[in-house]
Amino acid sequence: MSVQTHTLSNGFRIVTERMPGLKSASVGIWIMAGGRHETAEQNGIAHFLEHMAFKGTERRSALQIAEEIEDVGGYINAYTSREMTAYYARVLQEDVPLALDVISDIVLNPVFEEGEIEIERGVILQEIGQVLDTPDDVLFDWLQETAYPGQAMGRTILGPEERVARFSRADLAAFVEQHYGPERMILAAAGGVDHDTIVAEAERNFGHLPRGADKPVEPARFQGGERREIKRLEQVHFALAFEAPGYRDDRVYTGQVYATAMGGGMSSRLFQEIRERRGLCYTIFGQASAYADTGLTTIYAGTSADQIGELCAITIDELRRAAEDMSEAEVARARAQMKAGLLMGLESPSSRAERLARLMAIWGRVPDLDEVIGKIDAVGMAEVRDFAGAMAAGGRAAMTIYGPESAAPDLRSLRERLAA
User: Fold this and answer.
1) Does residue 234 have an active-site annotation?
2) Could you tell me which of 210, 240, 243 has the C-alpha nearest to residue 228?
3) Lowest mean per-residue pLDDT among 135-139, 184-188, 252-256
4) Which residue, 163, 188, 144, is CA-closest to 36?
5) Is the whole model's pTM more than 0.90, yes or no?
6) Has residue 294 got a pLDDT over 60?
7) Per-position DSSP letters for 297-315, written without gaps between them
8) Pick the catalytic residue: 50, 116, 183, 243?
9) Whole-angstrom distance, CA of residue 122 vs CA of residue 349
């Protein structure tokens, strides 16, 4: 397997990886224009644009977009994150030029027809309603907002209903004008692909675009705090977050090993102590998320109102204890889980294309897998204990509680217990 890159004169980047033996390919455009690039008044518009991409272009109707890809047995999709919007397709290798043409068309030539805007507005409002009815979805939106209050990094990707209800065609076009420049785009492809063919297609479709100006992003400032929402539910949903390294900080690997050891699987500390030994919950996990300039170490659990106090106390005790007795066996297991997850995921051309795009956005290059695995292997027990200790002593955290009235402890008491 070989990674090849190319940059057009206007800053548009192409990265491909041929995977011998594959008869299919994943290809897409990743644009560095996500939720954190919005102003408060624009909150939700990046996601709205993602929806509108499939509603018709100057050359194709919404039905034709779907039919052209599905007529050859492929599929096309998109997503919006806090730092990117992606439009991608999976097709057989002989249909890669078609997929590139369709994706280029929906990115460059959307018509934003008024009737389709109103239809999709209704769809998105239903999506927002669905999230609000899903406790473990809305809880994480609230946690992000609590961690980064009053900032683009803290706002929901879907946007508030009142904003979505007012977006106009002019608003959509303005965001595209501001953020969809070629210097912010990456074309990534993996599988049965030919690099030179894809570069030629990219030059034909994107080479004429004028390069835009650099647009600074509001720095993320973790502040933390507490939010409680009372609702008649069967369980109390609990999430706790601490600031962690961003993905340009090599300590990100230590943070990921720590989160995996604490709550990344059935053998993890929190799962074993809280679910297996005490039966306090069905679901509990820890995870690490990273962005350009910040990250989060997050613990989530759901339990009954009369057990939430005990669950929170034991969670804090386990977090504190990790700074003292995290074992080499636990760290080795977490490293193995991370490496296996990385390598297994890369057996899919879709996962590999997404990785190519993300690494190009972060580093401007694609590090060898051996380099990444080496950084994971370099994380030792001492580093993980130090990370756990620094987190416990850090002083700031974000917590969200959602569910029925309960005796869930407040954030101050948890922080005091953690620092004891």
Assistant:
1) no
2) 240
3) 135-139
4) 144
5) yes
6) yes
7) EEEEEEE-TTTHHHHHHHH
8) 50
9) 33
